[in-house]
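> forwarded from #structure-qc
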């Protein structure tokens, strides 16, 4: 993962770097930590089990982490899922979760 690959993904690198006092290595380290958060996998398990109230709490926490890292496209998908779970919308959560995980993987491999 590089600053350039993050820009290609659509991350607001300037905002992320500002939050990390301009320290590129620190920003990249924070992204690695954020993306390795075990709540990503736990979210999938909760969705599979139909435990949507708990899934809401989990995805809401991830939204904060990813938002602070300025990872726009992933943040937008997680935000959508958060709002759908908040109102208990009848949507395909499995497809949304798959998109979250694909975006996460894309960043990590970038």
């Amino acid at each position: 993962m590089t600053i350039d690959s993050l820009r290609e993904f659509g991350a607001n690198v300037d905002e992320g770097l500002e939050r990390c006092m301009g320290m590129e290595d620190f920003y990249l380290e924070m992204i690695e930590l954020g993306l390795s958060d075990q709540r990503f996998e736990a979210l999938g398990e909760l969705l599979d089990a139909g435990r949507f109230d708990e899934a809401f709490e989990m995805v809401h926490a991830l939204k904060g982490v990813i938002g602070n890292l300025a990872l726009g496209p992933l943040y937008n998908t997680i935000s959508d899922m958060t709002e759908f779970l908040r109102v208990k919308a009848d949507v395909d959560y499995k497809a949304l979760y798959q998109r979250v995980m694909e975006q996460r993987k894309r960043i990590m491999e970038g």
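QC bot note: Residues 31 and 102 are 16 Å apart (CA to CA). Residues 52-68 form the longest helix (17 residues).
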